[in-house]
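User: I'm designing a mutation panel for PRTRC system protein C and want to avoid disrupting the core. Could you give me a predicted structure to guide residue selection? Please restate the sequence first so the numbering is unambiguous.

Assistant: Good idea. Sequence first, for numbering, then the predicted structure tokens:
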Amino acid sequence: MQIDHLTRTYRYDGIDLPVPPHLAQDPAALRAYHATLYPAILNAETVDAGIMGGAHVTEYRRAVGTKG
């Protein structure tokens, strides 16, 4: 049996976002940090994109709809 450790990758609009080590275990704080880089992340949906290339990928997807 072999145990593989996966890294977490957060992606927004096709861009891999940085994950500071002190925020890696706190998804809410990490989302707030990423929102300082891209404010639309505050309203984005978090989607588990699965495992790609040895990393567990989480994507922020913008909410699509009408303003009003």
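For picking mutation sites, this is relevant: The mean pLDDT is 89. The two ends are 55 Å apart (CA to CA).
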